[in-house]
């Protein structure tokens, strides 16, 4: 009976698939999970194939890294801002490689920057800076086995697994990597936001400095795109830019190849309800089109020798 009970619990958890209090990302038929530059990353394979545009033959390249905002989450892929901008720019020879994915923060964006700038050799790197992004998401996401877990507020061993129960390290890692029931109990423990107060905006500054230096070393322009919550009028965001976003301005003043584009400045005059999909940060179909019309050309302005794109189709 003692042997059967854990098996029944494990089978039950796998069938029931309860939602834990923390983010858990498991690979699936269309969801890929892997380490890039030592950092756990995830993306929807079918979306990535279209967004990353691996076969583009244009002579100008833009690499986009960011989260769900830069991906254009919440609308059909063909209505997302980067796809609309790409279609308008195609005749002018601009390739738009969008590597953004929901949930990404500075650690993931930095890993993508290191991996794909040398490969793609873009003219411009677009690096999203979101007002609510965790300044060091490597403190949040941990990859154990083939899955990624949010382990904030938990003691994490050198093997990457949380240490909730007093069991030997080898057994703890084995159970966490192989038992979804054991995972569920672990990731449901503690408060995932217990340490949020310790995460200060200054932690993000070194990453922006690294990105600036990396761009300079590779001879490319870097555009920090500032993104905000969509629960406050855009003119108020402009007048009261959060400290976390002000670091982008400071870095841009130090490096001649670094520029700042604030989405709030581009959208001043727009009514929130006409462009917002939700209060978090995502844009509806009209908002995606407005971004394509305004953010796209603002980025293109930093492509050396590039003429403005045509109208958004």
Summarize the structure.
Helix content is 39%, strand content 17%.
Describe the structure.
The protein is built from 13 helices and ten strands. Strand 7 (141-144) and strand 8 (147-150) form a beta hairpin. Residues 195-203 have low confidence and may be disordered. By secondary structure, the protein is an alpha/beta fold. The chain has helices at 4-16, 45-52, 68-71, 81-89, 106-120, 169-178, 180-187, 205-217, 234-239, 243-254, 263-267, 272-275, 285-300; strands spanning 24-25, 31-36, 39-44, 60-65, 94-98, 124-130, 141-144, 147-150, 221-227, 258-262. The N and C termini lie far apart (66 Å). It has a five-stranded parallel sheet, with helices on both faces. Strands 1-8-7 form a three-stranded antiparallel sheet. It is 39% helix and 17% strand. The chain has a domain at 31-136 and 198-300: Rossmann fold (3-Layer(aba) Sandwich), CATH 3.40.50. The longest helix has 16 residues, at 285-300.
């Amino acid at each position: 009976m003692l042997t059967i009970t854990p098996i029944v619990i494990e089978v039950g958890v796998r069938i029931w698939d309860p939602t834990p209090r923390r983010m858990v990302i498991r690979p699936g038929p269309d969801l890929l999970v892997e380490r890039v530059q030592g950092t756990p990353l995830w993306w929807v394979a079918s979306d990535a194939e279209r967004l990353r545009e691996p076969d583009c033959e244009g002579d100008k390249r833009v690499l986009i890294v960011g989260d769900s905002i830069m991906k254009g989450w919440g609308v059909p892929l063909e209505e997302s801002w980067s796809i609309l901008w790409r279609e308008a720019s195609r005749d002018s020879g601009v390739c738009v490689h969008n590597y953004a994915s929901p949930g990404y923060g500075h650690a993931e964006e930095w890993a993508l920057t290191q991996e794909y700038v040398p490969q793609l050799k873009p003219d411009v790197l677009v690096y999203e800076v979101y007002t609510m992004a965790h300044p060091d998401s490597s403190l949040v996401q941990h990859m154990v086995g083939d899955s990624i877990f949010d382990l904030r507020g938990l003691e994490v061993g050198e093997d990457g697994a949380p240490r909730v129960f007093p069991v030997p390290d080898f057994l703890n890692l084995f159970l966490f990597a192989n038992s979804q029931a054991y995972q569920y109990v672990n990731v449901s423990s503690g408060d995932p936001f217990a340490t949020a107060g310790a995460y200060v905006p200054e932690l993000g500054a070194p990453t922006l400095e690294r990105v600036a230096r990396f761009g300079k070393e590779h001879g490319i322009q870097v555009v920090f795109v500032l993104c905000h919550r969509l629960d406050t009028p855009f003119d108020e965001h402009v007048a009261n830019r959060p400290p976390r976003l002000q670091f982008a301005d400071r870095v841009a003043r130090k490096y001649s190849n670094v520029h700042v584009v604030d989405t709030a400045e581009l959208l001043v005059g727009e009514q929130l309800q006409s462009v917002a999909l939700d209060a978090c940060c995502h844009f509806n179909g009209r908002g995606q089109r407005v971004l394509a019309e305004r953010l796209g050309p603002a980025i293109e302005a930093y492509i050396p020798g590039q003429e403005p794109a045509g109208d958004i189709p």
